[in-house]
User: Which sequence fits this backbone?
């Protein structure tokens, strides 16, 4: 379970998050919606520890991650907690100079596995997201936007994390690929029993995949009632 209490994060001359409370229960698909620039990506990064919150508390599976962030000597413990989170970055963020297999392999480096075992995992994860092992030797620029997104998801699940964060997983994709990625997100959460945090502007994805819904507005995050029409939130 992920628990956030009273989290605030500002940048110089820019207020972003104030007193955020949030819970993601195990196995759920949790939506984080909000207008562009409202702070959704900043919020995910604060949970991951890629950005350090100014104040507040982030707990992952009972570990106080915010305390670990504040103490450099506990960096290894923070890294272990982070290894339980797969992150599909806004825009995929594959490394262009590396092949598909090398990109996925990056997520396995810390596991100290034999090359043959890593190869097996790479094939298995590619298959799980619906890609053939033929793409292994390709470079990101040889792939379509949708395929890049699938590789990014394969990389995020490579180490079998308990959590996966998707930041705008369907933006810029054609409608068929949007449907495919939406189905994949639901399927992975059910088959792998993974807890998903999904940041999106895509109302189709939100309606199909969302189980718990939070909306970020005026620097705060509110839990939305089940009966609320998602479009209403933006009015
Ligand atoms: N590292 C940073 N330094 C300074 N300001 C930042 C930084 N990261 C984000 N911001 C600012 O914080 C605000 C929230 O940014 P964020 O990227 O979280 O928005 P978002 O809700 O994810 O938007 P979008 O839907 O367009 O992706 C923006 O005004 C942005 O300019
Ligand atoms: Mg964003």
Assistant:
């Amino acid at each position: 379970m992920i628990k956030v209490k009273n989290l605030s994060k500002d940048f110089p001359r820019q207020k972003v998050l104030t007193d955020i409370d949030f819970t993601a229960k195990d196995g759920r698909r949790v939506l984080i919606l909000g207008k562009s620039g409202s702070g959704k990506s900043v919020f995910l990064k604060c949970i991951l520890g890629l950005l350090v919150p100014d104040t507040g508390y982030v707990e992952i599976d009972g570990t106080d991650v915010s305390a670990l962030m504040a103490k450099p000597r506990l960096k290894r413990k923070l890294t272990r907690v982070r290894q339980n989170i797969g992150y599909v970055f806004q825009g995929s963020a594959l490394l262009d100079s590396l092949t598909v297999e090398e990109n996925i392999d990056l997520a396995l480096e810390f596991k100290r596995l034999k090359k043959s075992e890593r190869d097996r995992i790479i094939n298995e994860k590619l298959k799980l997201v619906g890609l053939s092992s033929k793409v292994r030797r390709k470079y990101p620029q040889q792939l379509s936007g949708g395929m890049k997104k699938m590789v990014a998801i394969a990389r995020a699940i490579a180490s079998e994390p308990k959590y996966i964060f998707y930041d705008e997983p369907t933006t810029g994709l054609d409608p068929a690929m949007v449907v495919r990625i939406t189905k994949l997100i639901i399927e992975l959460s059910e088959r792998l029993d993974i807890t998903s945090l999904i940041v999106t502007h895509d109302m189709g994805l939100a309606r199909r995949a969302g189980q718990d819904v939070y909306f970020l507005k005026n620097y705060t995050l509110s839990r939305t009632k089940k009966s609320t029409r998602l479009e209403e939130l933006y009015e």
The longest strand covers residues 14-24. The chain has one domain: 2-226.
